[in-house]
Design a protein that fits this description.
- The radius of gyration is 14 Å and the shape is globular.
- The chain has one domain (3-142): Hotdog Thioesterase (Thiol Ester Dehydrase, Chain A, Roll).
- The chain has helices at residues 3-7, 55-69; strands at 21-26, 29-34, 80-90, 102-111, 115-124, 127-138.
- It is mainly β and 143 residues long.
- Strands 1-2-4-5-6-3 form a six-stranded antiparallel beta sheet, covered by helices on one side.
- It is built from two helices and six strands; from the N terminus they run αββαββββ.
């Protein structure tokens, strides 16, 4: 799956598309990869750095992509917003100094028409970097 194909299934465009590909997915989970944490044009960088909590956005895009691939978004990408983050564990200070690609895994815990919940983990250089749970409200544009 190319970045262009990913972009058709998530509500992000241009440099804000942070996923490079899909390793595997099924009805309940997705595993993606990204090299965008090293990109100098990453729009989440501040003062030349990409903080560890930016991993949440990588995970959120994996969740959105999972919804698109699993057919849960209807005719096109649905804008949503993260309503809740829980049990966030950061095991690094920043992402831009991770030499290898990131692996982003998201597992759907529950899903309804208006909201979904996932657990997620972002790994790199052979270790877990950031993990937690997120609840996402769908159809944010309608609110």
């Amino acid at each position: 799956m190319t970045r262009a194909e990913i972009a058709r299934l998530i509500p992000h465009r241009g440099a804000m598309v942070l996923l490079d590909g899909v390793v595997a997915w099924d009805e309940g989970s997705i595993r993606c990869w990204s090299s965008r944490h090293r990109a100098l044009d990453n729009p989440l960088r501040q003062d030349g750095r990409l903080g560890a909590l930016c991993a949440v956005e990588f995970a959120a895009q994996a969740m959105a992509l999972h919804g698109g691939l699993a057919g849960n978004v209807g005719a096109g990408p649905r804008a949503g917003y993260i309503a809740s983050l829980r049990e966030i564990a950061c095991r690094c200070d920043r992402l831009d100094d991770i030499a290898g690609d990131l692996e982003i895994e998201a597992r759907q815990l529950m899903g309804e028409a208006a909201q979904v919940a996932y657990s997620f983990a972002v790994r790199g250089d052979g270790r877990e970097l950031v993990a937690g749970r997120a609840t996402v409200i769908l159809d944010a544009e309608a609110l």
